[in-house]
């Protein structure tokens, strides 16, 4: 009797511990539709919830499979159990213990369109019970296959003014945040470039690069190119022609006027100097003529007296 009582107490305790796991509601949140660039990569955002806030990672196993075909696995921790076409192409980025089931797929093929669903298994011992397996077949992802990489978008200010800072932004959207597209410019240094990466909505991200530089006269009618380099080697570019408005100045008026005025002043000064010199010379000559005339007059008077 005592042993039966102990066994019953043990079963009740086990039921109390296990009941939240078995009776709790499992839900998954997966991006429904994602663009997938052929030869590149895609990250599928995924999370799941349960009555227990945090489950032990060691007791959880995450599996991704094709739609309702649970045995056609595209991800499993045991690579030998997945479809040969997906060997070394998928990896779990999320931490299952934190209810994160995010999956990365690389080297995208043009037939990898899906749909793909997530499945979680809760290991209770050496075996996995059927009630511990949950496939979220109502929350699967489909890929829209893209054969050409997205083109960057350039956002310039309205006008470039000579001698003033000019800022131009290049941005491109993608679905692979684990391998962010590299944005490069046809000009500029690292100090002139600012990069930002942000999520637009579930599964879609935006890489952004901002270039700021001081425009010069030589920049007028030059081309600026932004290149987006995607994982897998694909690239796309966007280009614009820069038109620089010259700074308003009146040098073409002021400089000739100053030169003209300066020349006139110098010429007037020379004229005044020459006039003064000429007058002084005339005065000297007149003075000398007066002296000679006086001498002749005195000499003439002397001769009259002696006569």
- pLDDT < 50 stretches: 4-23
Relative strand content:
35-45%
Work out the helicity level. Answer: 25-40%
Counted beta strands: 19
Shape: rod-shaped
Mean pLDDT: 80
What's the helix-strand series?
Answer: HEEEEEEEEEEEEEEEEEEEH
Radius of gyration: 46 Å
Termini distance? 192 Å
Structural class of the secondary elements?
A: alpha+beta
Oligomer: single chain
| Count of helical regions | 2
Strand order, main sheet: write it out: 2-10-9-5-6
Main sheet overview: 5 strands, mixed
Description of the molecule:
The structure is a single chain. The protein is α+β, with helices and mostly antiparallel strands and 307 residues long. Helix content is 25%, strand content 38%. The chain has helices at 2-23, 251-306; strands spanning 27-30, 33-37, 41-44, 46-49, 60-66, 69-75, 90-92, 103-106, 116-122, 133-146, 153-155, 160-161, 165-174, 182-185, 193-201, 204-214, 222-229, 235-242, 244-245. The strands form six sheets. A five-stranded mixed β-sheet has the order 2-10-9-5-6, with no helix packed on it. A four-stranded antiparallel β-sheet has the order 11-13-16-15, with no helix packed on it. β15 (193-201) and β16 (204-214) form a beta hairpin. The protein is rod-shaped. Residues 4-23 have low confidence and may be disordered. This is Myelin-associated glycoprotein-like. Residues 150-241 form the Ig-like domain. It comes from Scomber scombrus.
């Amino acid at each position: 009797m005592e042993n039966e009582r102990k066994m019953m107490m043990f079963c009740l305790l086990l039921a109390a511990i296990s009941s939240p796991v078995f009776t709790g509601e499992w839900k998954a949140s997966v991006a429904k539709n994602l663009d997938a660039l052929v030869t590149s990569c895609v990250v599928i955002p995924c999370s799941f919830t349960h009555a227990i806030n945090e489950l032990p990672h060691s007791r959880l196993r995450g599996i991704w499979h094709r739609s309702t075909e649970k045995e056609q696995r595209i991800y499993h921790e045991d690579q030998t159990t997945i479809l040969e076409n997906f060997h070394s192409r998928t990896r779990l980025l999320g931490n299952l213990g934190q209810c994160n089931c995010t999956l990365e797929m690389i080297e995208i093929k043009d037939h990898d369109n899906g749909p793909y669903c997530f499945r979680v298994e809760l290991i209770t011992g050496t075996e996995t019970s059927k009630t511990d397996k949950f496939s979220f077949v109502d929350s699967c992802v489909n890929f829209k296959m893209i054969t050409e990489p997205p083109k960057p978008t350039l956002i310039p200010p309205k006008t470039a003014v000579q001698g003033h800072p000019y800022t131009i932004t290049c941005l491109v959207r993608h679905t692979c945040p684990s391998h962010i597209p590299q944005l490069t410019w046809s000009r500029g240094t690292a100090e002139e470039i600012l990069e930002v990466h942000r999520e637009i909505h579930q599964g879609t991200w935006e890489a952004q690069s901002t270039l700021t530089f001081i425009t010069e006269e030589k920049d007028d009618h030059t081309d600026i190119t932004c290149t987006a380099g995607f994982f897998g080697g694909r690239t796309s570019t966007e280009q614009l022609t820069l038109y620089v408005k010259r700074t308003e100045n009146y040098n073409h008026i002021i400089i000739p006027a100053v030169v003209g005025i300066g020349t006139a002043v110098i010429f007037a000064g020379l004229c005044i100097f020459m006039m003064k010199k000429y007058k002084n010379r005339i005065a000297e000559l007149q003075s000398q003529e007066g002296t000679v005339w006086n001498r002749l007059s005195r000499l003439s008077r002397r001769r009259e007296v002696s006569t």
